[in-house]
Amino acid sequence: MKRLENKTAVITGAAQGIGFAAAKRLFDEGAVCALIDVNLESCKAAAAKIDPNVYAFACDVSDRQAVSDVFAQIYGAMKRVDILINNAGITRDGMFHKMIDDEWDAVINVNLNGVRNCCKAVVPAMRENKYGKIVNLASVSAFGNMGQTNYGAAKAGVIGFTKCLAKEAARNNITVNCVAPSYIDTEMLRAVPDKVMERFIAAIPMGRLGKPEELAAAVAFLSSDDSSFITGECLVVSGGSYM
Asked: Is 90 exceeded by the pLDDT of residue 97?
C-alpha cells in the first residue's frame, strides 16, 4: 500500500517548480490531487503531465473570495481535503530603500495572506474530520537575505503562523509544519546572473543547488503518517547552509 493511498491533497502554486514536483510526488504516493495555480491553462498542462485524473483549478490565493470559491469546487469534486500544501509564492526583490508599496504588498499578500486564506478554507473541515496535514513552504530568506525584506518578512510570518496554528490544531489530530528551502534549481532561480549563481552555490556546503524533487520528498514525509507526532516544526532543506 502506498503511503498516501486514500488521501486527498491540494497543492497551490503547482504549475511548475517545487509545487509541481510536490504534486507529482504526492500523486505517486497514492494521493488524489488537486492543483491550484493563478493561470488555469498552465495548471491544466501541469495536471495532465501527472495524470488525466488530477484536478486543476485557477485561483489567486491572495484573493479571499476566490480562495473560498475554489475550495468549494474542490470539496465538491473530492469531498474532503486531507492534505494542504501551501506553496504559491512570488518575489519582488529589491533594496528596501527603493522598494515601492506595490512590491511589498504583493509579496505579503501572496506569500503570507495566501497561506492564511487556504488554511482558513480547510481547517474547519479538518477539525470535524479529526485529521489533517498542512505543509507550508517557508524559506531560509526568513533568517535574513539582502534585497528581500518583503519576501523574508512574509516567510518569517509563515513560520510563525505555522507554529501557532500547530498548537491550536493538534488536539484535532491536525499537524502543521513548514519546509524552508535555500537555493533550489527552479525556473525562477535560473534567471539569476551567472556570477550571482556562483556565489549562491559557493555558500552551500554540498556544492550544488537543491532539486525540486528533494523538496518534494520532504513535503511528502510531512504529508504522511510517518510524521504523525511531528507538528509546529520548520524543516530546513539547504544542503547544509543553515546548520
From this structure: yes
